[in-house]
Design a protein that fits this description.
By secondary structure, this protein is an alpha+beta fold. 50% of the residues lie in helices and 20% in strands.
Length: 332
């Protein structure tokens, strides 16, 4: 069997080196953009910007494909794989080098992949045309777009999330658990994507100080997260309303440093429980949470809010339902 000529190996090695160089350059650009924006006044909202979600991954993947396929000989598989590899590298670097939280990575990955594929295949379609203006602007497109977007005011959109559950107990049996729940076991509640896969801390207990309007309830999640809820509506057996008061940074520190519940792009504002008797032994308990979304990608952010806040609501309602039904059964 004839051995392959070393002359035939050289083009392959050159192509491999070009691909590695493309990925290295893309990662340097991404890191440079991150450091520049982190040092700016817009640093806390960079990951929720349109340019970062949609434009930057497209440009980076186009750049890698441009460097890695100079003769336009690679198959479509190469163009499909580039965004997958880049997204994996960015996620690994974000966790181990930049110490980013998993919530941001989960939210960013789907859009980065979609945008990356768009950039890769646009580059593949345009290679034969030799668009010099595009070829010479890989390094400046992301930064120029970031500066332009920074001048556009953020919209403020109030979002209302609601979840309900039917409980086999009268309102008076449910009310104490809506007001306060102590010593919540880690196995209480329900399985959710947000808690079980993404890793959001589960409620541990909620403690009410005082009664009536003006009372303060403190919620504890996991071992480290806590925040306050100031009571603004108190109708025993009917309605309990509150405004959130985040007196510390524990939510950010132990979930994701970019997810501030009272920050530049998100304000978790208020919530309430409503109890509605359905029949003599059944009550509908409804939990409503209101927050203000303040990003240029509100439609996308709201999808994740629907999932994650909805999971939190459903888990809390399940805890109340199980406790109230056990207490009601014990009294019969």
């Amino acid at each position: 069997m004839k051995s392959q000529s070393p002359w035939a190996e050289r083009p392959r090695k050159r192509l491999k080196h070009r691909v590695l160089s493309g990925f290295a350059l893309a990662l340097i650009i991404a890191l440079s953009a991150f450091l520049l924006l982190s040092a700016s006044h817009a640093g806390s909202v960079w990951f929720a910007s349109l340019w970062f979600l949609a434009l930057l991954p497209a440009v980076l993947c186009a750049l890698i494909c441009y460097i890695g396929d100079p003769d336009q000989t690679r198959s479509a598989t190469f163009y499909w794989n580039v965004p997958l590899v880049l997204c994996a590298l960015v996620c690994v670097a974000s966790v181990f080098v930049l110490h980013e939280g998993v919530i941001c990575l989960v939210m960013l990955s789907p859009v980065w992949l979609g945008s990356g594929w768009a950039g890769a295949f646009v580059m593949r379609a345009q290679r034969g045309r030799r668009v010099r203006a595009l070829e010479s602007s890989f390094l400046i497109i992301p930064l120029v777009a970031a500066m332009v977007e920074a001048q556009i005011p953020f919209p403020h959109e109030t979002v209302t999330l609601t979840r309900s559950v039917l409980i086999n107990a009268p309102p008076e049996a449910i009310w104490p658990y809506a007001v306060s729940s102590r010593d919540i076991d880690v196995h209480e509640g329900r399985w959710t994507v947000t808690h079980n896969l993404i890793g959001m801390p589960r409620p541990r207990e909620s403690v009410m100080a005082g009664t009536g309007v003006g009372a303060v309830r403190t919620a504890y999640w996991g071992e480290h997260v806590n925040f306050q809820e100031r009571i603004v509506a108190w109708e025993p057996g009917q309605k309990l309303g509150w405004r959130f008061n985040f007196t510390n940074s524990s939510v950010q520190e132990y979930t994701d440093k970019h997810i501030s519940p009272d920050g530049q792009f998100l304000t978790v504002d208020s919530g309430d429980y409503r109890l509605r008797p359905v029949n003599a032994g059944t009550t509908e308990l409804t939990l409503t949470t209101r927050y203000i979304a303040k990003t240029h990608v509100n439609p996308y952010a709201k999808l994740w809010g629907e999932l994650m806040m909805g999971d939190v609501q459903e888990n809390v309602l399940t805890i109340i339902k199980d406790r109230a039904e056990r207490a009601s059964e014990g009294q019969t």
